[in-house]
UniProtKB/TrEMBL annotation:
Superkingdom per UniProt: Bacteria
Keyword annotations from UniProtKB, A to Z: Transferase
Matches recorded under Pfam families: Hexapep
InterPro entries given in the database record: Hexapep, LbH_gamma_CA-like, Transf_Hexapept/Carb_Anhydrase, Trimer_LpxA-like_sf
Gene Ontology MF terms: transferase activity
Keyword Transferase assigned: yes
Keyword Transferase: yes
UniProt cross-references to CDD domains, sorted A to Z: LbH_gamma_CA_like
Name of the protein in its database record: Carbonic anhydrase/acetyltransferase-like protein (Isoleucine patch superfamily)
Amino acid sequence: MTSHVRSFKGVTPKVANNVYIDKSSVIVGDVELGEDVSIWPLVAARGDVNFIRIGDRTNIQDGTVLHVTRKGEHNLDGFPLLIGKDVTVGHKCMLHGCTLGDRILVGMGAIIMDGVVVEDDVFIGAGALIPPNKVLESGYLYVGNPAKQARPLKESEKAFLKQSALNYVVLKNEYLQE
């Protein structure tokens, strides 16, 4: 265990095979990273008052903050952070207590708040704000503040969602070889 991947209250992050975690990132507590995940510079992932799960081949880019909402009297389960497979989270995003499906691209600087559910195959534009408890329907582009459904995704855009994640698998493998 290194100083940037550390336990909290006796719970240690679980890291699958072939994962890249930049040394400037901080991964704390109840966090699980799937196969081929990449965590880029200056990411903070705090699974301290609830848990974080990140699926296979997902990449979390520079300066992103990942956090959760505690369990409480008015929200018995709180809001963990669940991120699916083949997800690309752009630079400087904030994901807080939300659920993201598979094959999603979160544009740079986007903020996704508590209780949001993003279905599979969604593109979220840069700078978008997704207010609490919204559901983003599969197969669409969402943009704006607050974000609104802009249009259906083209087939080429849907294919890019998976390709973006695979591009980061290749890049993280290059970093692991350094």
